[in-house]
Design goal:
- It is built from eleven helices and no strands.
- It is mainly alpha-helical and 288 residues long.
- Helix 4 runs parallel beside helix 7 and helix 4 crosses helix 10.
- The protein is elongated.
- The N and C termini lie far apart (58 Å).
- It is a multi-pass membrane protein.
């Protein structure tokens, strides 16, 4: 008795066995600029809706400029203002541009903790299964945080004028100082995004960030002139990008000589972005 073996018939066209499966990783390199911008806009809207649902997340942006202005002006303004050859009002003119440089750092720290929290909640895992560029998720975060930074800058400037700040330069110089602070703040955000992707908890991100922020902020010309500092500390402040940013913002707002501070600040921002952005995107792609 013989047996007949029937060969399996080919699957019909369009059946699941013949439909190619598209993956996010395979399509990422073929995403066009227009689609990428659309993804960034959708993700930024998602982040804005999160803020709408949790308005308490704006407390740092709304209150931090007020607290810093009142604290430093009325605690240190008299003594530091005298060292500048004037009074408390002289210190206000010195302090506000420096605080503009500091705002970006504090907002950037929130980016790192937010990315870390999204990963712990599984939100980022869902994004990584979608056919979108990995960078669009992180860029959307930066776009929204830049919006928060602009709100903080506005409140800072309003408080500065309330306590007596005078604008000796032009309005264009003021806008240029805000734009320069935003560019540098966006660059710093890539560092904290990478930190948020590398640390296990948001508390660890915040603690490590403070260890980095404190020396950078107080070892600079943000709060006080550097001429009275020890020589070794002055050498550090000369290479501190926050000093360059603060000095550039003061010159732009008060009409003084800008010098090389603007170009040094832009150079630092470009260098940080070129190094940290690819590292952050690669870490986001590979993070388990």
């Amino acid at each position: 008795m013989s047996t007949t073996t029937t060969a399996p018939s080919p699957a019909p066209s369009g059946s699941p066995s013949t439909v190619p499966v598209k993956t996010a990783g395979a399509d990422e390199g073929r995403i066009g600029l227009r689609a990428n911008l659309r993804h960034i806009g959708a993700l930024a809207r998602r982040n804005l809706l999160q803020i709408k649902k949790d308005p308490e997340s704006m407390f740092d942006v709304l209150l931090m400029p007020v607290i810093f202005i009142l604290l430093f002006v009325y605690v240190f303004g008299g003594s530091v203002g005298a060292s500048l050859g004037g009074n408390r009002q002289e210190y206000v003119n010195y302090l506000v541009p420096g605080l503009m440089a500091m705002m970006g750092l504090n907002i950037a720290m929130a980016v790192g903790t937010g990315v870390n929290d999204d990963f712990r909640k599984g939100v980022m895992d869902r994004f990584r299964t979608m056919p979108i560029a990995r960078s669009s998720v992180l860029i959307a975060k930066i776009v929204v945080e830049l919006g928060r930074l602009m709100v903080a800058m506005f409140i800072l400037l309003v408080m500065g004028f309330v306590v007596g700040m005078e604008l000796h330069g032009s309005v264009f110089g003021l806008l240029a100082a805000v734009a320069l602070s935003a560019v540098f703040g966006a660059a710093i955000m890539w560092i904290f995004i990478l930190l948020g992707l590398s640390m296990k908890t948001a508390q660890a991100v915040q603690g490590t960030a403070m260890l980095v922020l404190m020396p950078l902020q107080f070892g600079s010309s943000i709060f006080v002139p550097t001429q009275t500092m020890p020589g070794w500390l002055q050498a550090f402040t000369d290479y501190n990008p926050l000093s360059n940013l603060a000095d550039a913002a003061r010159a732009l707002m008060q009409g003084g000589p800008v010098g090389d501070s603007v170009w040094w600040t832009l150079g630092w921002a470009a260098g940080i972005t070129l190094v940290m952005a690819p590292l952050a995107v690669a870490k986001f792609r590979k993070k388990a």
